[in-house]
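hey can u check if this looks right to u? its 180 residues, i copy pasted from the old doc so theres a chance i mangled smth
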Amino acid sequence: MEESCKWIDRADRQQLKTKRVYNAKAIDAIRDYLVEKGETISVAESVTSGHLQAALSSGEFAAKFFQGGLTAYNAGQKTKHLNIEPIYAEKVNCVAKKVAATMAIEVSKSFISDYGIGITGYATIVPECEEEGLFAWFALSYKNEVVLTKKIATEKPGIDAQVNYTEQVVEHVCNYLTKK
C-alpha cells in the first residue's frame, strides 16, 4: 500500500484528539454565548467546503449549540437546497452578498436554528476574480433576518484559503455575538 494511503497509527490518532485545528477560544466563546441564550447555529457553505462545520463541531459540547450544516458547491445545489434564485446565481457565479445572505437564512430554516451562517467565494483564481483576487462573502442571520454581512479576502490559495476564510468567519461571528 502506498505510504500516503496508510491509516494513521494509534499515537498519531491520540495527538489528533488533543490538537484543535481552528480557533478554539473563539469557538468556545460562540458556544458559551449560544448555550447561555439557549440558541443554536447552522452553516451553509460553499468555498469553505465543510471547514466551518468542522470548526463549530470541534467545540466541546457542540451538540448543545451546533445544529449542523450543508455544503453546496454549485448553483444547482444552492438553488435546490437553499432557494438561491438561479438566474441571479448564474449571473454572479454564485458569489455575492445576496447569495451568502440567502444561504444563511435558508440554512437556519432547514436546520431549525436561531442563527445561520452562509459563505460563498473563491479559493482559487478563476476568470471571475482575476482582477480582484481571492475573496468570499459571508452572512450571519438571526431569526431569519440578516444581521451581519462581510466581504473577506485572502492571498492564500486552495485549502489554505478555505481555512483562512473559516478563521475569519469564526472571529467575526464571535465578535458579533460577544459584543451584542
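The longest strand covers residues 145-153.
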